[in-house]
Specification:
11% strand; Aminoglycoside 3'-phosphotransferase, Chain: A, domain 2; three-stranded antiparallel β-sheet; alpha+beta
């Protein structure tokens, strides 16, 4: 029998079963436990432990000292502590929108949490062109509650600074600083560009000095603007969903950063789903219907966020100067501006950089994939360069449609 109380080691499926029996007060003594490692992300090991008799189940997520995607990324297992604590905080701020955490183990660097097997990963569901009409309502509430309620607008400043200290996350931030803000904007050896798209990238991204300047400004804002406690990696692969429920998970990149970072990641990944649908749904009527659904979802996420943000600000702002006339509109404007900028970075880095998204890589026709990538890159570049002009959901849709029209004309 292994000792889980002395020092860390990377668990196997058999270890996770033993761990559940000896270290978790969850299952009955006569439980017949089975385990499968189900992690498909870039960093961690995820074990699903099930009692075959009662069907009761939990998830054990363990953080290792290196990333699964590459041994180049040496990581502090403290990210598991950060994830556990932020999930518990988000559970209070936005109840119903994150899984419940049962236990955090600092020795084995793992946390045990609610199993969400009755949900499905949102990215996979969108690739199958499923619809979730409540998503924009759910995610906008989650974003407002977790971002505004952890800011200086609402929190006591000393309490907020204590959270900034607690959630300093240098190793994971460095990954974002490199993969999101730096490497995609020059011919970095670690980039992975689809051959048919490479010439477009060279001409429109790597040679554009104006774009590089703006990304430099935005990288330093990302590193220095401790505005809100952000999830830090809020894409559709970090959301479990079903028709009446949305659950955000995997916040190990969490730290105090620009509030627009989380919103922008959501928007960009909905655009990836949009690009996938555009080039994989063959029936014209079905394609138009699904693109309309995604377009409306993108618009609603922005507009509902704005509406709820202003309402919650009025109800819960405690900072005296935050109540000055016009300040909340100014503050919100900077958040939406940053949302556009981050969406732009995410759209570009997932096409050019090391970590791709299945929405795009699963497009089997090479010509269609190149067209999808060019649209995403064009939208992303426009978001970054024109971020000051982004005010409403309609502005985001205008950029998407303009990019489609531009690429269509060039293809003719």
């Amino acid at each position: 029998m292994k000792d889980f109380t002395k020092e860390y080691f990377t668990m196997t499926e058999e270890d996770a079963i033993e761990y559940a029996k000896t270290n978790l007060d969850i299952f009955q003594k006569d439980a017949q436990l089975e385990c499968k490692e189900i992690g498909d992300g870039n960093l961690n090991y995820v074990f699903k432990v099930v009692d075959s008799k009662s069907k009761q189940s939990v998830i054990i997520k363990q953080a290792g000292p290196v990333a699964r995607i590459s041994d180049e990324f040496k990581l502090s297992p403290d990210r598991n502590r950060i994830e556990s604590e932020i999930l518990q905080l988000q559970f209070k701020l936005a109840p119903g929108y994150v899984p419940e955490v049962y236990k955090y183990d600092p020795i084995m660097n793992c946390c045990t949490m609610e199993d969400l097997s009755d949900h499905e990963m949102m990215r996979a569901a969108l690739i199958e062109h499923k619809k979730f009409p409540l998503f924009s309502e759910h995610i906008s509430t989650f974003l407002v509650n977790t971002l505004l309620l952890t800011s200086d607008v609402v929190m006591g400043h000393k309490e907020k600074k204590a959270l900034v200290k607690s959630f300093i996350n240098p190793e994971l931030c460095e990954i974002s600083e490199d993969l999101v803000y730096t490497e995609p904007f020059y011919d970095c050896p670690r980039n992975d560009v689809f051959p048919g798209t490479r010439e477009f990238v060279q001409e429109n991204i790597w040679k554009d000095e104006k774009l590089q300047l703006e990304t430099a400004k935005l990288k330093f804002e990302f590193m220095t603007n401790a505005q809100s406690l952000i999830h830090g990696d809020l894409h559709t692969g970090s959301i479990f969903i079903k028709e009446d429920s949305t659950k955000v998970f995997d916040p190990e990149f969490a730290f105090y950063g620009p509030a627009g970072y989380d919103i922008g990641n959501v928007i960009a990944n909905l655009i990836f789903a949009y690009a996938n649908a555009k080039f994989t749904i063959e029936d014209e009527i079905k394609r138009k219907d699904y693109l309309d659904y995604l377009g409306n979802t993108i618009k609603d996420v922005i507009d509902l966020f704005i509406e709820k943000f202003l309402r919650v600000w009025d109800d819960q702002a405690t900072e005296h100067v935050a109540k000055y006339k016009g300040f909340k509109e100014h503050y919100l404007g900077t958040v939406i501006r940053d949302t556009a900028a981050v969406a732009g970075h995410e759209l570009i880095r997932r096409i050019i950089g090391l970590a791709h998204v299945k929405d795009i890589t699963s497009i089997s026709n090479p010509e269609s994939r190149v067209r999808a990538e060019k649209i995403c890159l064009t939208i992303g570049k426009t978001f970054i360069l024109n971020r000051e002009n982004m005010k409403t959901g309609a502005d985001f849709i205008d950029v998407i449609q303009s990019a489609e029209t531009k690429l269509l004309k060039e293809a003719e």
